[in-house]
Amino acid sequence: MGNNVGAVPLLPVDWLYRRFGRHYPVAFFLLQLSVGLLVTAGSLGLVMLYYDASAGELLRLLAMVEALTVAGLSIGFARAVPRLRPIKAWINGERGHDATLAAWDAAVNLPIRVLRRDACLPAALVFPPAAVMTVLVLDLEWVSLVPLLAAAAVASAYAAVLQYFAIELGLQPVVDEIADRLPPDFRFEAKGLSLRLKLIAGLPLFSVITGLIVAAFTSRSGDSSLGLSVGVTLVVAFTVALELAMLLANSITRPLAAIEKGMAAVREGRYETQVPVTTSDELGELADGFNRMAAGLAERERLREAFGTYLDRDVAEYILSEGISPRGVEVEVSLLFCDVRDFTGFAERADATEVVACLNALFEAVVPVIAGHGGHVDKFIGDGLLAVFGAPEPWRDHADRALAAAVEILEVTEAGAAGELRVGVGINSGAVVAGAIGGAGRLNFSVIGDPVNVAARVEAVTRETGDGVLLTGATRDRLTRDVPLVARGTAELRGRDEPIELFTPGRAVVAPPSAAAALRSA
Which domains does the chain have, with CATH numbers? Predict the structure, then answer.
C-alpha cells in the first residue's frame, strides 16, 4: 500500500524497536513484565492503605506477590509465543505477501487474543493468592478475605485492560512498519475491542480505582472500610461513570458509524454519498473531509464516464490509471481504416437526421466488433474511423486481430446492421508513435506515422478492386496464424516511392455496392 501520510511523534517503544531490531519481542516481554510488576505493586500499595502493616510485612507481601506476578506473566508469555512467530519472521526479513499479511494480523490482533485467551490465567495465579497471603501475613480475620477478593477482582480487571493497551502500544512501531508494506489486496477485518467497549469498560474502571485511592487517603479504619469503599465505588462506577462513558461512546461512535456506512456506499460505487456533519469537533472535520473526498471521487467518475463516451473506454482507463508519457513511445501495431462507400451520394439524397442516424447505427455495430478483437478506435473521421490493434495493449497477434475484426465488420454491415450503408476496410502494420498529441491544454491519445496514411490509402483502393477488405504485405508478414489470402497485385499509393503488395482474405470478401451506388448505376 505505502504512501501513508502524517507524521507520528516518536515514543519510547519506537526507540526500543530501533535499538533491539529482531530481538524486540524479548524487549517487548520485558516491557510487559515491568508494567505488570508496577501494576501489582501499585495494587498492593493501594490495599495496604486500608490496613496497618509494618515495613517488614509489606516487603514480605511485595516479594511474594511480585514472584506470583513474574510466574503468571511468564506463563502468559509462553502461551503467547506461538502468536509472536509471524511478527518475529517479518522482523527477521520475511517480507513476502503472505508473511506480511500474517505479521499484520498477529501484531494488530495480539492484544485482543491475549485478553480473551491468556489474561484470565495470570490474573487467577496472582490476585486471589495475593488476597490469601495478605490475610496470613497480616494475621487478619478470614472474613477480611471477602473485601480483599473484591479488591483483587477490581485489580485483575484493571490489569487486564492496562495489559491490552500496553500490548497495543508496545507493538505499535512494528505495526507501523508492516502497515507501510501491506499488499494492494489487503482486506481489513475488525477483530479488536470496539471503541465503544473500550470507553464503557475503561471509564468506570478508572472511576473505581480513583474512588478507592481517594477513600484510602480520607478514611483508614480497617478492612470494613475497604469493603465499603469497594462497594461504593462500584456503585458509582456503574451508575454515574457508566452513564458518562455511554454518552461519550455514543458521541464518538455515532459519527464514526455514519462515516463507516458512507465508506461502504463508496465501495459499492455510490460516489454521490454524503454523511451528515453533526459535530463541530475533529469528528465533524473527519465527516466533512469524507464528503469532500466522495465529491472528488464522483467528479473523477464523471470524467471517467466522459472519457468512455468521447474516447475508447479502454484507452480512457489506461489514461486514468497509467498516465501518458509526454514524449510518446514507438510501438508496432496494425491499423484498420474503415470508410463508407459512396457516402457523398447517400448524404445528398438523405436529410441530416437520417444521415446522422445511419452513421450512428454503423458505428454502433462496428465499434463493439473492434473492441471484441482487442482493438481501440483511435478517431472518427467523418464517415470513417481509424482503429489500432497493439496499443496501448501490446498484442503479439495484432495483425490477426485486425484482420479478424475487418472480416467481421464486413459481415455485420452486409447483414444490414447499418441499413443501406456499406464499407470498405484497409489494413496495414508497422511502427508508429503512440502518445498524447496536441497543445494549449488539449490533448488526444493517438498514433502517428506513415503506416497510418498507408492504411487509409489501402482502403481507398478497395473501391478500385471491389474487395471489401484489403491488407498490405506488411500485415501479411505479421500474421501468426495461417490465413488463406488472395493476392491482388501491387498498387501505387500517393506518397510512396515503391508499389505496395495487397491481399484480400481467401473467402473472396467482396463489398457489394451501396444502395446509392446501385441506384446511380441503374
Answer: 12-193 (no CATH), 328-521 (3.30.70.1230)
